[in-house]
Amino acid sequence: MILSELEKQLAERRDAHLYRSRKVIESPQSVEPVIDGKKVLSFCSNDYLGLANHPEVIKSFKRAADSYGVGSGSAHLVSGHSAEHHQLECELADFIGTERALLFSTGYMANLGVISALCDRHSEIYEDKLNHASLLDAALLSRAKRVRYPHNDIAQLSERLESSGNENKIIVSDGVFSMDGDLAPLNDLVSLANTKSAALMIDDAHGIGVLGNKGKGIIEHIGIDIKQVPILVGTLGKAFGTAGAFVAGSETLIETLIQKSRSYIFTTAMPAAVAAATRTSLQLVQTESWRREKLQSLIAQFRKGATELGLSLMDSHTAIQPVVIGSSSETVVLSEKLLEKNILISAIRPPTVPEGTSRLRITFSATHTEEHVDKLLTVLDEIKVK
Ligand SMILES: *Cc1c(COP(=O)(O)O)cnc(C)c1O
To answer: Looking at the structure, do residues 70 and 156 belong to the same domain, yes or no?
Structure first.
């Protein structure tokens, strides 16, 4: 029986150092959240630009709550699609440079919704092995044939596409890989998609807002015409500091998603106040490029210091700077030692990352200071992270 096995399974998880538990945050999101009444220095939030608790964003949220109330009441297609949602979609499309954009309540749902609307059991979905769980789940849900290629291995991907006679192919990749921080080889993916007549979908959850002069993410960073990336997903809960996600693309793509995307149709719209707050975030993302510059300088400071300490870093120049430890138990111990020193960095373990590559996933925010980074480096040295 399903339920009678649970205790045993939980015990096994605990024994394998894979048990997960939550810490209760008693303050706004910031680089110094309060846990158990104690202020800690956090290096594991995805609030990369420090907008989650920005006064202007909060003000827009409150103002919209006064005008629209809290709940959206129903799905977008029923009566939940407010003027704030509509305006935000137009502004996101303008920002990215596509005909349209469509809001989803979360990034997870956006990925499920897009892939299951576009693919069926006659399609083939090519996914990087390190793609985010939501992209992998989406492929399962679509019932399409799934082909996973080794991380960023264009030669392998090309070979696999070559040997397929299927007309309905889609290549799906993270833009910035969420647990490694490295970038997809977007130029290569674009040319492969073109030569092999495959559709291309990029999930830029960790690039949007962070990369590029204006924060347009990987496309701007690499200098690729958005027309070459017909399906772009961005999330709003990370650099934008709010919640939700969007898909940017052509009129035809977006209208198709409105008709067919089940995680769009069968769910309540995000609160209008979240959309209103995000409109303000979007302004800040575009105008306050100092946040991206600051972030880059903190990343450079960390990489330099960490290299001097002999830490092995990954090939990442984004806000995600993981230190791979290997064993889950060791990673958990290090994470606990860090917390004893008032530093919050969670231990990322399988199945979030491959077996044997448990890590401290260190992330930076524009609201960290140079002193924060120095403190982190000192403590990493003290507790002998290598
Ligand atoms: C966080 C993340 C998602 C999910 O977005 P949510 O809005 O948190 O549901 C999707 N894709 C990637 C690559 C992510 O890192």
So the answer is: yes
Using alpha carbons only, give the angle 33, 110, 217 rounded to the nearest 5 degrees: 65
Residue 359 lies in a domain: yes
| pLDDT tens digits, 135-160 | 999 999 999 999 999 999 999 999 99
Domain count, the chain: 2
Q: What is the pLDDT of residues 238-285, one digit of tens each?
A: 999 999 999 999 999 999 999 999 999 999 999 999 999 999 999 999
User: Ligand 1: residues within 6 Å at CB?
Assistant: 106-108, 111, 132, 134, 174, 178, 203, 205-206, 235, 237, 245
- Distance in angstroms (rounded) separating the CA atoms of residues 137 and 119: 13
Does residue 340 share a domain with residue 276? Answer: no
Closest atom of ligand 1 to CA, residue 176: 13
| Other CB atoms within 10 Å distance of the CB of residue 166 | 13
Token digits of residue 327: 């064993």
Q: Which helix (H) or strand (E) holds 112?
A: helix 107-118
86 is catalytic: no
Q: Whose CA is nearest to atom 7 of ligand 1?
A: 107
Domain of 321, in residue numbers: 17-49+289-382
pTM: 0.97
5 CA distance to ligand 1 centroid (A)?
31
Report yes or no on 2 lying in a domain: no
Residues 244 and 357 placed together within one structural domain of the fold: no
Structure tokens at 160: 């696999």
Ligand 1 atom having least distance to the Cα of 243: 7
Q: Whose CA is nearest to atom 10 of ligand 1?
A: 107
